[in-house]
TrEMBL record:
<dbReference type="Pfam" id="PF03703">
    <property type="entry name" value="bPH_2"/>
</dbReference>
<keyword id="KW-1133">Transmembrane helix</keyword>
<keyword id="KW-0812">Transmembrane</keyword>
<feature type="transmembrane region" description="Helical">
    <location>
        <begin position="25"/>
        <end position="46"/>
    </location>
</feature>
<keyword id="KW-0472">Membrane</keyword>
<dbReference type="InterPro" id="IPR005182">
    <property type="entry name" value="YdbS-like_PH"/>
</dbReference>
<protein>
    <submittedName>
        <fullName>PH domain-containing protein</fullName>
    </submittedName>
</protein>
<feature type="transmembrane region" description="Helical">
    <location>
        <begin position="52"/>
        <end position="72"/>
    </location>
</feature>
<feature type="domain" description="YdbS-like PH">
    <location>
        <begin position="73"/>
        <end position="148"/>
    </location>
</feature>
Amino acid sequence: MSRDWLTLEDGEEVLWAASPRVQSVIPAVFVGLVVAVVPVGLQLTAGDAFPVPVWPLALLGVVPPVLAYVWIRNVEFVVTSRRCYRKQGVLSRDVLAVGFESVQNSSYEQGFFGRLFGHGTVSVDTAGGLGTELAFWNVEDPRSVQNLVLDQRAAFDDGDDELPGTVEQWQAVLAEVRRLRRAAEGYEQSSR
């Protein structure tokens, strides 16, 4: 899958990428069947009295599953070492990125069929957001995806404890601060 939409920073690497399962089109297939079957049923019950040819209406039943398939094939979820991304769109593109510095929590849910077939939805909640900011829906093994998000969040938090620079650089900063303090105290005493 081409990820021309994904611009990674230096040191950022893709850890997981997926799209919704292709089975996500099943509801659209049912809608398409209804759209295709209803005109045929009307033709059979009305006979020659049905005012329009049936086959053009029945062909409309192909439209919902085709549109659903094209839309699902243009959705991608990515977890990197620094962010979670969701890209969607067929004619246009919408990319949402959530950095681990703002991730508050992650959860997953699986319905009956999700538990049976191993798929579900992973939600990512952010600080200051109104609930779920980002969801990876209908993905395989949602528990491992949730664990990956939480592990990366924890790794990001652990990285916050490190101060930039070396001990020698900080000792030089401390020496400079002490020199400035002595100079300020000397100025204060001389102005009295």
